[in-house]
Design brief:
This protein has about 375 residues and is of the alpha+beta class. It contains 9 helices and 17 strands. The protein has a 7-stranded mixed β-sheet, with helices on both faces. It binds zinc ion (ZN).
């Protein structure tokens, strides 16, 4: 008896998959590269005709993906209601079909969605911006326009002197970064939250929940509509290549920056960690000490943050000033004692506190967003 073949679609917001072949409930797939770029890693598609059938989804060619180290010990994200995202058992074989991730899963419902991480759609982005902009004391500005014609949204709140910039999704496939923003904005806009209230007294917040709407909608991992990695543009952003960075950096020049977090996800490392600005030409021990103090506060506050795993630190004078964290610490170091950092969350999980059902998740990203802000308050209240 011939079984009806499953059907796979990805022509929607942040969709990304090429269907090479389908045979019953088995599919051979490949990830489409970011437009005008070599990067490929983000996938997001739906499978129809799936109820009660064991699917075997083989994503091939991953030896050529942006981060082959992201696939071992990785389980794909799956949802049937697009609210709760769990994990589907997956295995990686570098020797099969150019490197293959095989996802095996039996959905209960007729349609199931699969993604590299729980997606954060542009519709949800507009819901987030609308809800925040309607909150007491929050103002909204459109800073600029992307190459595809989308707005770059900025939310501002707080009456204090400390200029805090939070920005996320320079790399659009790192959707956990905008889930983090949702948690951060929840805390800051809650009129009852004591951390939010005190932070609004002490700080002026400038928040860009999504730096790369074009890459987000196009289903990119790492680049904008022109295939440009925005986090390599901060020394010389341009209207032609990186209007997203240019308009945000101009707005930062207007306000100055005392404290900044650039929110990301990491494909390979199973941990939450920070990267700092060691190696900038104008490095001061005082700037470095405040960065290390923030890290220590956050590590004490939440078991989902640690300082053992992370990136190698740049040697003295060798910082890459095209990256935002280094550019901001250098640009606003002398004037504002700027402390800036890159926050990385895992696509896999926190290996020190694993959750087999969900891995790293939207829920944990949001909780971390709240904790990062509570840690900022502690940093400000305990300044030596
Ligand atoms: Zn990133």
């Amino acid at each position: 008896m011939t079984q009806t073949p499953i059907r796979i679609d990805a022509a929607f917001d942040s969709g990304n998959i090429d269907v090479l072949s389908i045979d019953g409930t088995a599919a051979r797939l490949a990830i489409r590269r970011d437009h005008q770029s070599e990067f490929a890693q983000w996938f997001h598609f739906r499978v129809a005709g799936a109820a009660g059938r064991e699917l075997t989804l083989a994503i091939t060619g991953l030896g050529q993906s942006a981060y082959p180290g992201g696939w071992p010990d990785y389980n794909a994200c799956v949802s049937e209601d697009r609210e709760y995202w769990g994990r589907a058992a997956s295995s990686y074989d570098p020797a099969t079909d150019g490197g293959t991730l095989t996802i095996r899963h039996t959905p209960a419902a007729d349609i199931a969605w699969f993604a590299y991480f729980a997606p954060y759609s542009m519709e949800r982005h507009h819901d987030l911006v609308a809800a925040a902009a309607a909150s007491e004391g929050v103002s909204h500005r459109t800073l600029g326009t992307t190459l595809d014609g989308q707005p770059i949204d900025l939310l501002e709140l707080g009456e204090g002197e400390t200029q805090v910039w939070l920005y996320a999704r320079q790399h659009p496939g790192e959707s956990m970064a905008e889930w983090w923003m949702e948690g951060a904005l929840d805390l800051l806009t809650d009129p009852a939250d004591p951390h939010g209230r005190k932070l609004r007294q002490l700080c002026r917040f400038h928040i860009v929940p999504n730096m790369n709407p074009d890459g987000s909608r196009r289903g990119h991992l790492r680049t904008n509509a022109a295939g440009v990695n925005l986090n390599r543009e901060w020394d010389t952003p341009s209207d032609e290549r990186s209007p997203e960075v240019l308009c945000v950096r101009d707005a930062m020049d207007e306000t100055g920056v005392h404290f900044a977090i650039d929110v990301h996800g990491d494909e390979a490392i199973p941990a939450v960690f920070l990267a700092g600005f060691e190696g900038i030409p104008s490095w001061t021990e005082q700037q470095g000490a405040e960065y290390r103090r923030y890290r220590a506060i956050l590590e004490r506050r939440t078991p989902d943050f640690q300082t053992r795993r992370g990136y190698p630190v740049a040697p003295a004078g060798k910082a890459n000033l095209s990256m935002s964290t280094n550019q901001l610490a250098e640009r606003f170091g002398a004037s504002h004692g700027c402390v800036s950092m890159t926050l990385e969350m895992p696509f896999k999980d926190n290996a020190d506190l694993p959750d087999p059902a969900q891995g790293w998740s939207p829920e944990r990203s949001k909780l971390l967003g709240r904790e990062c802000l509570a840690a900022l308050l502690e940093l400000l209240l305990t300044r030596p």
